[in-house]
Amino acid sequence: MTEPRRPVIAGNWKMNCLLDAGLDLAQAVEDGAGGRDCEIVICPPHVLLHPVNVALEDNLLGLGAQDCHVAEKGAHTGDVSAAMLADAGCGYVIVGHSERRVDHGESDDLVRAKAESVFAQELVAIICIGETEAERDDGRTEAVLAKQLDGSVPAGSNAANTIIAYEPVWAIGTGKTPTADEAQNVHSFIRRYLAEKLGDDIASGMRILYGGSMKPSNAAELLAQADIDGGLIGGASLNAGDFHGIVECLPG
Ligand SMILES: O=C[C@H](O)COP(=O)(O)O
């Protein structure tokens, strides 16, 4: 029998928080953690990873980064490797966020290579996929997601080293979300597609998170869906009360 999937609530701080504010936020998130059986992950900007890791003493939170380079080291000015992120205390790395796909022209092939570099450090890759509003309006959501899954998810992905984050681009930071039924249908499609690609056992154990304007007022309905295993939270993760308000919406 397949193990139940442990929910994950991950906060992607994006390019927010200077040192003092970041330490305060991390501490407030840790202070409120521990009440639910789930993984709570915070993903501060790179420069805050080490100080946050040093400051958090209770080990209740997972630490994640927002990106990495494909190489372990070398002449890549301004980049950070997965090895460095592991060294800074990370257990997770987000790869392929739509903001990086757009702002930095990241392709599916590059995202897959980044995920492989994350696996090489024995970290968990949070691989982001999602359709734009135009793609959705054209009825191409499933085709777009299938292509992203084919291109971005390594053959070596499994339920332990990979989390998928479905983030409809039109929902990110806009206050718009799909209905819970619509989100469930997309997550179910993703799981079925992963089953074809990686096998039933892996797909049934892999966490698939929803991301895009999730907040305490809409989280309960989304998180109650059978194939939604948590959330990747942007704006609401910058307020510890809102972030924990989402954690509290987990069923059970
Ligand atoms: O990584 C997080 C997502 O982009 C969601 O951001 P948001 O919650 O601000 O819409």
From TrEMBL:
Catalytic residues identified in the record: H97 (electrophile), E167 (proton acceptor)
Family annotation (InterPro entries): Aldolase_TIM, TIM_sf, TrioseP_Isoase_bac/euk, Triosephosphate_isomerase, Triosephosphate_isomerase_AS
Chief localization: cytoplasm
GO biological process assignments: gluconeogenesis; glyceraldehyde-3-phosphate biosynthetic process; glycerol catabolic process; glycolytic process
GO cellular component labels: cytosol
Metabolic or biological pathway: Carbohydrate metabolism; erythritol degradation; Carbohydrate biosynthesis; gluconeogenesis; Carbohydrate degradation; glycolysis; D-glyceraldehyde 3-phosphate from glycerone phosphate: step 1/1
GO MF term list: triose-phosphate isomerase activity
Name used for this protein in its record: Triosephosphate isomerase
Organism whose genome encodes this protein: Aestuariispira insulae
Primary gene name: tpiA
